[in-house]
Every structure is written in C-alpha cells, then in structure tokens.
Amino acid sequence: MPEDQTLPPLLTENFRETARHYIPLSPEEESTMLAKVGVKTLSDLYQHIPQAIQFQSELPVPEELNESETRAHVSRLANANRPLPSFASDGLPDWTQPEIVARVSALRRLATSYTPYQPERSQGTLTAHWIYQCLLSEITGYEAVNSSLYDRSTALVEASFCSLRLKKKSSLIAVAGSLEPSDLDVLDTHLADTAFDVLRIECDPKTGRMNPETVRTILAEQADEISAFAFPQINTFGVLEEVDALTDLCREIGVRSIAVIDPFLLGPGGLQAPIHFGEAGADIAIGEGQHLALEPNFGGPGLGLFAIRFDSKHRNDIRNAPGRFVGGASDRSGQSGKVMVLSTREQHIRKEKATSNICSNQAFLATLVGAALLRRGSEGLREAIASARSSLQAFLGKLPEIPGVRCAFPESPVFTEITLATDFPVRDALEKGLEAGILVGTDVSARIPSSQTSFLKLTFTDRTTSEDLETLISVLQACAKEGSASDAASVAEPPASALRSEGPEIPRFSEEELYAYYRKLDALNAAPEEAPYPLGSCTMKYNPYLNEWAAGLEGFTRIHPAAPESCIQGSLEILFETQEWFKNMTGLAGVTTQPVAGAQGELVGLKMFQAYHRARGDEHRNVMLIPRSAHGTNFATAAMAGFPAGRGIALLKADSTGCIDPEDLDAKIEEFGPRIAGIMITNPNTGGIFETAFAEIAEKVHKAGGLVYLDGANLNAIAGWIDLGAMGVDAVHSNLHKTWTIPHGGGGPGDGIVAVSERLTDFLPGKQIIRNGDHFTTITPPSSIGTFHRHWGNFAHKVRCYTYLLRLGKEGIPRMSGTAVLAARYLQKSLDDQFPLLPTGTDAAPRMHEFILSLTEEQFEALEKVGVSRPQAIPSFGKMFLDFGYHAPTVAFPEALGLMFEPTESYTQAELDRLAETAKAIGELVISHPEIVRDGPHFTPVKRFDEVSANRNPVLRESMATLPETPAIGPASCELLARPVPEILAELRNLPIAAEAVEA
Q1: Total number of domains in the chain
Q2: Helix (H, G, I), strand (E, B), or coil: what is residue 747?
Q3: Beta bridge mates, 682
Q4: Where is the Glycine dehydrogenase C-terminal domain positioned along the sequence (predicted)?
C-alpha cells in the first residue's frame, strides 16, 4: 500500500454530535437490529434479569435539554463563578499558559484514543508521552520519569509505597511536617488500615522549616523501620528547605529521600534540580505538573510527576515504581518507534502483586505539558520565573509601608512565595480582598498550632500585575490596626547552592511549527468517533464536542480551588447536581465526586468498608472475596487497601454459566465467615454476562457481616435499567471516561465517582455539597475516611459529565445503555456462526454490552503451522484489525484465548456490519494466508515491534534538541476505513510475503 504523506483532515463535529442522545441509529436500523437478535424492544434485552432489581418507574432525573438550552444552562453556572486575580496558590500556582495547549487539546485522535496498548496505531500518543518523559527528565535530571500519576498527593503516596517495597521489612514512611497539609491528609488516608504508618516530623516554628539535626535524630532512632523521608524543596510556608542537608542525612542513615518539587521552578534562573541535592541527589522526586499546561480548573485534573533513578547503581529501583513508562523500540523492519515498557509491574498483568492499582493516569495532561514546555522553551521558563521573582521583590520593597505586617520567617530564604505574620486576623484581609476584587492569599495560621500569631501566605507568578500588587498592598494597609508598627527587616535570599547553575536545555518552537508537529502525531492514532473502537471492558464511545466547549468556559477554567465559597457557587452547583444525578441513577444514598479514576474509586470503596468495620469493632475483617475473572485493578486495589496477596484475598470460581459458582461462594463464606470484609463483583462480568443471582450473593455476604462492592466498569450495559440499591450494592464506582463520555486521552485522565448505600454515607471522603436555598455550601461527613484528592477531584470532567447528562435526561440514560447492549448482541449474532463464544459452554447465557470470541480449531492449527503458538494467536489476530482502520479488540483478557468486543451505542448498523465483515475477513485470512496474520499489521505507520528487546534494555529518554522523528503516516485510519473490506483483503493477499509462502 503506498504511503500517503498528506495529513488526514482534522476531526470535527460530525453526524454523531447532532443525533439525539449522540446515538446515530435510525428507527429503521434499530428495528432491523432488534429483529436480528430476536427481540422487539430495548427492554426485552433485559428480560432475563430479575424484575425485582430493575427500576420500577422512570428515573427521577430531569428531562433532557436540547443543545441551546444546555449551552444556556451551563453558561449560567460558569458565570456564577467569580475568578479573581490571586495570591492564593496553596500548592497550585496559576501561571500564564501558551495558546498551543488549547490547540493540541482539540486534536481528537490524541484526545480520545485509548491507552497505547497497540503501538502500531498509537505512535502519536506514545511520542507525545516520550516528549513529556524526556523534558521532565531534562528538568529534574532523573533517568526515568513515568508518564504521569493522578496528582502530587498521589505521587507522594506512590513514592511511599515504592520506598517501602525497596526496603524490605520497613513499615514507616517519615514525612516533613512542612509538606502541604492536603498532601499529608491524602497520605494518611491511603495508609490507614494497612501494615504501614506515617511518622510526621514537625518543622521549627521559629524558622518555618525543618531542622536537619532534629530530623537526623528522629530518623536515626527508627532507621530500621523507616523506608524513606519525604520533604519539600519549597514548603507550605513558601520557605526553601535545606535540601542538601536533608538528602545527605537520609543517605547517611540508610533511608531513601523523596524530594517534593515544583517542576516549573526548576527552569533556568530557578531552583536546583533534585538530582543534585546533596552529594548524590534525592532517590525519588515527585511534584505537581498541572500548572505547566493548565489553568487552575478548580483543582483538577492535576498531573503527578514521578521520577526515579535508573542508572548502573539503581537498575532495579524502577521495577518497584508505579505507573507507565514509554521506551524506544525498533519494529521488524528496523524502523524506530515507541512502546510501553516494563508493563509487567502493572495491575492488568500482576494483579495483587502489581506495584500500584493505577490504571488510568493523567496521560493527556502529559501530552499537553510536553507541548507547553516546547512552546516556552528554556527561555520562556526563565522569563516566567523572573517575572514572579520580580513581583515578589516589588512587594517586599513595599513591605515597610504596611503597618502590622512582617515577614514571618525573615532568616529563612524564599523564592516566589512568602508567609507574612499579621497583627490582624487573616480573615479580615481575605474579606477586604474580595471587596477589592482579589484573592489576597492563603490563611496558614493553623499550620503553626503553637503560635497565637496570624499567618498569611502569598504566591507570585507571571500573572501577577503591578495593579494586582497595588490592590494587595492597599488591602493589607486597610487592615492595619492603629499604632501598628511597620517591618523594615530584610528577607533572606536563596543561597547559591539552592539555585540552578545550568540547564535545563529545552528548545523553543514557534506556535505553527509545533502545531503542525502535533497534528502529525494526531494522524498516527485512531479515534472512536471515526468508527467502532471495539476494546472490550473499555467502553470507547463518542465524546461530544459540546462537553469540551463546556469544560473550556473561562468561569470554570480560571476558578482556583482555594477561592472562597462566594466565588465558586457555579462549581459547587455542578458538584451538587452531579451528586444528585448519580444517587438517582444508581438507587443509592450517597455520592462522592472526589475519586479521579475507576481504580481510585475502588480504593475509596474498600477504605470505607474498612472504616465501617472498624467503627463496629470488627477490625478482624481482613479478607476480600474476588472472582478469578475480575479486572486486574480489583486485586491490586484490595492489596493496596490492606488486603494482602495470599492471606487477604480469597478467589471465587465460576460455574458453567460463567457466573460466580454459588457452591464455591458458600464454601468461602463458611471458611472465612467472621473475617470477611466484603466482596468485589463486576456486573455484567468480564464475559459480558449479567450475574442474575447478584442480589442473593449480596444477601449471603451481608448475612456474613461483609459489604458488597460493585465494580462499575460495565455500567454502560445497565445504567438506567438496574437499581443497584435493590441489588444490595454498598459501593460502586462509575467510570466517567467510559459510561459518561469523558475522552480517554491516550490513557487518562479518568474519573471514578463513587455511590454508596446508607451504611457508608457517614464515611464518604472529602466534602459533600449541600444546598441552602439558592446557596451551595460544603460539609464533612461525620466519620469521613479522609481525602483522596487535595481539592475537588478532576473537576473539568464533572463539567463534561454534567453537560452530557443534561443532553440525555431520563429517557436518554436507559436508551444509551440499551442501545449499547443491542449493538453488542447484534455484532455477536453477526459473528457467532464463524467464531466460538467464550467462556466455553455459555452460549445460552445472554450477553450484555460485550462478548468474547475465540478462534476455531482449524484457525489455531493454521497459525501453529507458521510458528504462531496458541497464546500468541489471539494478539496476532487482534493486530490485523489495524489494517482495516480499527483498533484491536481486547486480547487475551479475561480469557487467554479470547478476543473481547464492546462496540458501544455510538455507531450505525452499517458501521457495525463493516466491523463484523472485517472480523470474518481476518478469519478467512488465517486459513488462506496465516503468514500474513503472523507478521501483521502491514498498513500501519510502524510494523510489529520487538518488545522483548525494548523491555530487556529500556531506553527511557533522549536529548530533546529537536522534535523527535516520527514515522510516515502511510494510510491513516480514516483512509483505511473508507475502503471496502474486500479491497483491503485482496491487497493483503497480494503482499510479497504471501507469494513467498506459496513458493515455499
């Protein structure tokens, strides 16, 4: 097939955008499809499910809005917010962002594609993540930077677990009390009910920073138990810590050092890179990267930076690190490209032995950060840092003119932030600031509980204007009490050792050059709006453009999470309404919108289970029941929550129908009885089969004293039809990036709202939003387990989800899931005469939104004759879908010899027919030309990679003096989709390798 060097057209709004509920099926197509699967209505697809657990009436949610009504409603909410110039960052500073970020955000093949498990059609995403890794490696100095975690708080948690794994028999993670309190709260929440504890070392209240000798003494006393010490470079008071001394004493005592840094401030003219802390550098560096590319967005989505050593002295540390890494590789033709490496650490392979339960990360933010850094370059970072420093110096020059205000820690150096001691309550300044139109700063008085003084922290960035400074000074002067003295004391400057002496070297590209490059990366991917994206258990559906418009409204993007309640009424209303919708859609009593991914939602659920049992005096309940066929995250989450592999997880067998074996369940309950904390079930299960006995299973577990967790990964099959409360569910997460149309972003960010039964409402994490008349406010549940996010979760995704719900309304929700089931049944019916259904012997069990097929014995044997083993036959078959313009189905999960298809509701009958035709064509090709399948894919930008070599000697970074080379696009996925299947099949049969096989 000739290579086409022209870029395919940009994806823009299409017929799916204007279809009611974003479902493009015509009434005639729906009738034809219903007839083919042997039913008359969508409700007939659910007739095998007990009526007692189905909703008995319409969902108690509003009617759908049309597009103009939705725009007006969401605009009203955005306008109800009041973004203001801000000196309040509290760990999330607000820097100016380059225009390239918005332009790259609109590239749909990058924004909506899945995690790049099929590298041959994912080089766009992989290269974008490679750029991020290399640039952050250049900034921090570390050999290995993963392609993102949820946020800085989660990165601290993951670094802690990593260090605990690296130091066998350790049980403590020591932390500086000068870290951001929200980060410490998240760490405490995660480590509760595990075998590990947090040792908090307080800072010196006189200097506002850690005393190295105090730290040394405390660490030395428990050196054997302590795995690592985590400390900030710039602490919660804006003070620079003595990072060299802290790093060196960690090495001296035998504990690892975890440096918490701000990557933005490591640019030229900025602070020292953590690789150069002390004699040998910190062992691990973590930080927040949201502000490298995004505005505050009410606190999310964030981006967690995680960097670790990977050199001759530290070859194995990375094996204990969390998250994904992208590495260099060569395909079978010798062409270079990128693949994910070291994946055997991850949950989908290692299950309860994984290094983390994280599945979705913040992948698309990593893409945007890479673009933003290349647009800024080293000089752009230097200019921004210099601007912030200049504003701080200008303020300090005026400090003597402000009575009753002084530097809180004059002997401790600062960089872009400063904490002031005030003779007046900080709340007075905050209130006067609102009247003047600014956010004055952050009240940090409670962070030094031993002091009666009021403390106000100010943050300066390149957004700080001279007008903002004048307003700030006027507000502070207006707060001064009569007779208050002024402070003329100087503030300590950073020592030379704290500053960067060279680098980082980041090239700077023009807007148009960079956009053209990312457009090419975009063309190397496939997108779910082009055609079915049949990944099973991934729910790849159309992502409406209207959602993106809503999330991009300035009233949402510019609002800071530290803003007072009066300024955030629009955001609070969205969170409140989202809570109410999910209560009503699930039939459950409470909702938390804080979790930022399905895996984190699972962890939230299990942590609430533990708190519930602890409150009842049942701490001995330490066993979780999980079916063998469950998603890998279930096992990894259970282990992370404190149900360790081997003794905390009991596996459940399946019966001949593919559902949980009731006899095995009874036996496990008999065996573990009073130790059972709960059960985790996916329903429909990973075979696409609905567990019709779910309510009975729940009753048995409840009778044994346990709780019931529903993995909501497959809610796209049952939303609006099944009452989870009636099923006996105690907690369920809902993947917004699956069921509720949030774009996958090449692997994230996701979202994982959790709904709970009455049993657990008192234990919900974070804040609950309540309505008092027309005003929205927050409360903390009485027995809250703590917090999983330093702010409000991935707020921008709540905007997208809420916008989608408005367009669905009470009729659209069941129509969405019903059509998804219809599409799967129709596709299955189109293929079941060609391919066997798995699990074996379950043909009579109705499938819901997804199904698993295998190959025939003849097909397996044909591939074996050309050297393809049975375990490799399934991935090889899957890769051939790429040659027809599709992404592959899910391969070898949960059945080793299976292909899992999930077509979703977003496609027409004709689109589903072409997908079925493609599967049949590949099946024919296996018999007639198995060597073509063995060596596929053939029409992708790169061919099959040597992933064994890529993993044996991982290459994780390169110098970024120029933009990385990319492969020729060849035929883009949309061009392959435009061609008839027989035409592509004929071309495959005429490839040289086919002729060589005939001659042989």
Answers
A1: 4
A2: coil
A3: 711
A4: 818-923
